[in-house]
Amino acid sequence: MEIEKILEEGAAHFLPNLSIDLVIIGYKQGKLQCLLLKFEKKWVLPGGYIKKEESVDEAVVRILKERTGLEEPHFKFLAVFGDANRRFSEEFKRYFKKYDLPWKDDYFINNRFVTLAHYSLVDIDNTHPTASGFDEAVAWFPFEELPELWLDHRDIINTARNRLKTDIKREQLSYNLLPDPFTMPELHRLHQTILDEHLDRSRFQKKMLATGLFERLPKLKKETPGSNPYQYRLKQNI
After folding, report:
1. What is the mean pLDDT of residues 180-184?
2. Radius of gyration of the chain (CA)
3. What is the pTM for the complete model shown?
4. pLDDT of residue 185
5. What pLDDT sits at residue 1?
6. Closest of 198, 204, 129, 115 to residue 160, by C-alpha
7. Please, are residues 62 and 54 in contact by the beta-carbon 8 Å criterion?
8. Which residues pair with 33 in a beta bridge?
9. Arithmetic mean of pLDDT, 184-204
10. 9, 11, 27, 143: least CB-packed within 10 angstroms?
């Protein structure tokens, strides 16, 4: 839907006062990274609104596809964020003035929005982020090097990072951050990055294989001289 149509008719198409914000997490060069969009002078999480005819999960899948190009993205519900002053009205007004666009105080985007935050684990090399709508730029940022963010988006990101630490101890999710196939040393390094702690490599590999989720491929991968680990992938019937 074009910006002009969203502004004029959005209230008729989207659920009122509810939005989706997505912490899209990737892994590159040994660092966890987050996809952000530039809006005005700061950065924001990718997000959008929920159409009246779709479920929340359908909205998340649609927005993730629009932002990453992924057809079947991984995602998990994170939390609800709903500060009493949670609105972008002044920022939108400055944006419209900056680009000499018509402005109306009764645009539905001026309202306070409660957001349903989710996080998504993606293989960065398979994503194709694009700027659209109000976005002035799109970029990946390491969690340790986040730029200045609007509203509560830093809190949402920190909540997602802490949740990921908890979630990977209870269920296998981290492989979504790696290419298919991957090696056990790659998975081991990834878990150490997420948890920010040392993990015994032998015990880690035994634990992963004991889950029965991964199948070993016959092809070896040459990582470094003298290191040729087996490659793995998620079993097809999982």
Report:
1. 93
2. 20
3. 0.92
4. 94
5. 47
6. 115
7. yes
8. 26, 142
9. 96
10. 9
